[in-house]
# Entry
Amino acid sequence: MVTPDLINQMLTQAWPEAGMRCVEVNDSGAVASMEPPRSSYRPGGYIDGPTQFGVADAALWFAVHGAIGRVEPMALTSELSVRFLRPGVGERIFARAKIDRAGRRCVVGTITVWTEGNEDRPCATAQGTYVLPG
# Structure
């Protein structure tokens, strides 16, 4: 069974500078979080688009691990489309990925991105596909 601790351990070993953490994971989705570095803020205190994109991608990657039942570092983003809904303002950003379809070769999911205390007011939404190694 895949747990947040297993995913976070893999992240710490392989990409200690990533800054992303897995908060929740199960066979139907996952939640990622991060405290963006000061360099990720635009004037006005807005979390920049690349950071929002990154946390969305991480949440789907974590969800893939849960859907396939193992930590698979070589699951790769095939495509990811993000729509920015409103400015993301805050000290911590979250993304929840829900698995739409998990097949033998690819996993498709939908992601919602929000800042701490604003889960009911997402700043972005995304949909993406991950390809599994052969």
